[in-house]
Amino acid sequence: MMSQEQFIAICCVCNNVRDDSAKGNPDQPWGPLSAYLSRHRLHSGEYRLTHAYCPGCASKFSRRDSSPVALTPPVTESLEPIHAGSGYRP
Q1: pLDDT of the residue at 90
Q2: Coarse DSSP helix, strand, coil percentages of the chain, rounded to the nearest 5 percent
Q3: Per the domain annotation, does 66 fall within a domain?
Q4: Span 58-84, mean pLDDT?
Q5: Percent of the chain beyond pLDDT 70?
Q6: Considering the domain boundaries, does residue 85 fall inside one?
Q7: Does residue 50 carry a pLDDT above 70?
Q8: What is the pTM of this model?
Q9: Could you tell me how far CA 30 lies from the centroid of its own chain?
Q10: Which of 23, 28, 24, 19 is nearest to 56 (CA)?
Q11: What domain range is 17 assigned to?
């Protein structure tokens, strides 16, 4: 009888996975999926992936940590308005 499926958190940006068993080594809890599967001797059907963000990607893409989004600069040239019925103006 197969044991219950294990859920593995995978970063939706870089595809590294979190190794919750690496609590003794908090510096490297994220790494490649292939290394995780090999280390834990898991095969297809014995695990499911659930999406998360690793600490590196979370800080890179977090709105709290990033600078404000730059707004599009205003148009500096004057454009004549196109009036209804005047046709296409390139």
Answers
A1: 54
A2: 20, 20, 60
A3: no
A4: 60
A5: 57
A6: no
A7: yes
A8: 0.59
A9: 14
A10: 28
A11: 6-61
